[in-house]
Design goal:
Blueprint (H helix, E strand, L loop, with lengths): L3 H7 L11 H27 L3 H25 L3 H7 L6
Helix pairs in contact: 2-3
């Protein structure tokens, strides 16, 4: 039987949060860089490949990385300042 903490850790977020923390933003930017590098490598190696079947598979992998890149970019393009105004502020 899973503990409550294990259940929370294994839960998948169905909808991304509207507000992104600075730290999360940095993680997303790092991931964008990795996806871009993977796209470039796939393009390069697909062009170098002489086997058409393998070239197609490498192109398909490059397209997957491009989709991931675009999805991450979409998450970074929200207006974080406006969304922060909607978050209830706690008084200390």
């Amino acid at each position: 039987m899973q503990t409550q903490q294990e259940q929370q850790q294994s839960a998948i977020m169905q909808v991304p949060p509207q507000v992104i923390t600075t730290k999360d933003s940095q993680y997303l930017k790092d991931q964008l860089s990795w996806e871009l590098l993977a796209m470039k490598k796939c393009r390069h190696f697909a062009q170098e490949c002489t086997d058409s079947e393998i070239r197609q598979l490498i192109d398909k992998a490059g397209q997957m990385h491009q989709k991931h890149y675009m999805l991450l970019l979409k998450h970074l393009q929200n207006n974080n300042t406006e969304e922060m105004k909607k978050v209830p502020q706690t008084q200390q």
